[in-house]
Amino acid sequence: MKISVIGCGYLGAVHAACMADLGHEVVGVDVDPARIEQLSAGRAPFYEPGLPELLTAAIATGRLRFTTDLDEVRGASVHFVAVGTPQLGDSYAADLRFVDAAIASLLPVLGPGDLVVGKSTVPVGTAARLAELIEGTGARLAWNPEFLREGYAVKDTLAPDRLVYGIRPGDDAAVAALDDVYAAAIAAGTPRVITDYATAELVKVAANAFLATKISFINAMAEVAEVTGADVTQLADAIGYDDRIGRRFLNAGLGFGGGCLPKDIRGFMARAEELGVDQALGFLREVDSINLRRRERMVDLAREVCGGSVEGKRIAVLGLAFKPDSDDVRDSPALDVAARLQELGAIVRATDPQAIGTSRRVRPDLTYVPTAIEAADGADAVLLLTEWKEYRGLDPAELGSVVAVRAIVDGRNCLDPGAWRAAGWTYRALGRP
Ligand code: UDX
Prior knowledge:
- It is built from 18 helices and 14 strands.
- By secondary structure, the protein is an alpha/beta fold.
- The chain starts with a strand and ends with a strand.
- Bound molecules: uridine-5'-diphosphate-xylopyranose (UDX).
């Protein structure tokens, strides 16, 4: 099929490369010339395992190209809209200006029989509004949310858990076109939910709200564990054996960040308020508060291991990305904690396997070093804030030989407390005795 992808950020770049990998002819469009140049050269503008290889291979087949010229989407019959919907600066609501601009720029090139497919996460009701705008061109609209996780974006796009098609009732042609696009996943037995626009839009935010709630639930248990001497990681294991609960997304620690969960729950609350059902989502305010309290608790623990104040103390920060296998620092709890400690007068030295460049762009005032050993050199305390594999496997004796004080705070409950204590470390963690 001939496909265009409007917006080549995280979602769009991965989607375009994966669609070409599946055999479709794809043109990716973005307004940022630097990004288009990078992608055209087979380079991913962000760290995502497997993406550079996929881009290079797909470009070499001639099936994938990138451009800033929207006119080049003429000839494609399916147009994916994959632009960002960040949180507005002055409220919880989502900023729809990129979605609106993408649709406005598509209108002149759309013709009868074309299908526009929204993939961006939008407030419920957006698709119905956009469908009206598109109607005059003879093209149709479908809403097809994505559920990709950073770090697994290629796999999640090529082999999704489920496909959701939000369509105008009875639009069989839209279903047939999407089935052609996703023929490989459908042949592999991927469940497909065909529904209306509103349900499709809600599926995405409901899924993210549920995941955020699950994380904040276990972090709330961590708060209780902290005042009772209980161990939240064992608690999670024990309740996780119940299939109805499940162990995944029950890792207590510094909480969630990134470009999706935080802004999606806030956008969902804002939309619910507009719809007069804000009470239904009141609990999400609590989910957000529990999440943000973890960062304060981390700062408190740093203060405790430093003897009451971090002022003038040398603190090593291991991890800046919002999660491992990503260089994304959008709403990253780790970067936030590092910055707060510096503001409190600590001498922070931070490191991350991939996210130093992205961190420096938003926090040029922090000091970055390439390795954990360099960060820990002479440190009064070490904070593990993102559970990269290389940090989980750190040797307590080796790290102990460079620090000034053997004190570590495990912000992700990913170290073996016994091993660190046996090596003479003071080990503290969120939700563990
Ligand atoms: C998320 C959703 O998982 C994905 O389906 C959606 O499409 C986009 O948002 P992503 O932002 O890539 O994906 O990150 P995810 O793996 O979900 O992790 C989100 C945050 O939660 C991270 O900061 C992570 O560290 C944190 N987390 C996750 C926990 O604190 N505990 C857990 O048990 C799991």
